[in-house]
Design goal:
Blueprint lengths: L10 H16 L3 E2 H8 L3 H13 L3 E4 L4 E4 L1 H13 L2 H16 L2 E8 L2 E8 L14 E3 L4 H8 L3 H8 L15 H14 L2 E4 L6 E9 L5 E10 L5 H21 L9
Antiparallel strand pairs: 1-3, 2-3, 4-5, 4-9, 5-6, 7-8, 8-9
Helix pairs in contact: 5-9, 6-8
């Protein structure tokens, strides 16, 4: 069908989206007056709009607090979107861009118990590279990726995972003390990135950064791994900057938004 003039947006649909976007941005439930003041909508129109969204499950109304919050339909829609495009599908283009910019191996891992599992890899073209493969499991305390993933765990979950566990040694640089590991994880939380200084493989170093989902939880980590012969400070900083930019874009595609107070 051909239209002679631009199609005008439907006002009621736009207002419904404004309500959902407002509650998403505020990250808390709001009262009728708060929603009306924020959107500048007349009371009669807003009442009907909120009733329609609540009836359809997009909003929930708490009669005790007299507040409106996001409903289960929002969660269902978000989950459906997340399932439609997997983490790996989203990550590979970002990882490829990083690889093309620095010509080093880029990897992504997720946490499985005390191990990080490599779920994606894009290799560089250097003659001296990294021997690793997708599906490999390595002890998280001994890798840059693994430490970033451990640092993203809530304190109670981290304690339950590591309490009483012997931390295996793989090189002279492996962190085998729980106190040293705890300090390393605290440093990662403070700096926003982790490193592997030949802690699992002699002659290989890496930098790694977290990837966040819509809740702000660490769901993965991506890294650049480099033989120490090429890993000078300039190369390290370039790798870290590329990783930070890539992780930020990947996290945003998963629904993560930087908190307004950050």
């Amino acid at each position: 069908m051909k239209y002679d003039r631009p199609i005008q947006p439907v006002k009621s649909a736009r207002r419904a989206l404004d309500v959902l976007e407002l509650l998403t941005a505020r990250e808390r439930s709001l009262t009728f007056p708060e929603i009306g003041d924020a959107l500048g909508l007349p009371g009669s129109s807003l009442h009907a709009l909120l009733a329609t969204l609540t009836d359809a499950g997009w909003l929930e109304f708490d009669p005790d607090s007299r507040q409106y919050g996001l409903g289960l339909r929002v969660l269902e829609a978000g989950n459906a979107y997340s399932r439609s495009v997997s983490l790996i599908d989203r990550a590979l283009p970002v990882m490829t861009e990083i690889r093309d910019a620095i010509d080093e191996t880029v990897q992504m891992a997720v946490l499985d118990g005390r191990h990080n599992v490599y779920v994606a890899k894009v290799s560089g073209n250097q003659l001296l590279g990294l021997a690793s493969e997708v599906g490999r499991r390595l002890p998280a305390h001994a890798t840059g990726l693994g430490k970033v993933l451990l640092a993203g765990l809530p304190g109670a979950k981290l304690s339950a995972l590591l309490d009483g566990v012997e931390l295996e040694r793989y090189t002279d640089r492996t962190l085998t003390s729980h106190r040293a590991l705890a300090q390393a994880l605290a440093d990662i939380r403070a700096k926003g990135f982790g490193e592997d200084a030949e802690e699992y493989t002699v002659g290989v170093r890496c930098v790694a950064v977290p990837v966040f989902d819509q809740r702000g939880a660490t769901v993965a980590a991506i890294s650049v791994s480099v033989p120490i012969i090429r890993f000078d400070e300039t190369h390290r900083k370039r790798a870290l900057n590329l990783l930070r930019d890539g992780a930020e874009r990947l996290s945003a595609s998963l629904g993560f938004r930087v908190p307004t107070h950050a």
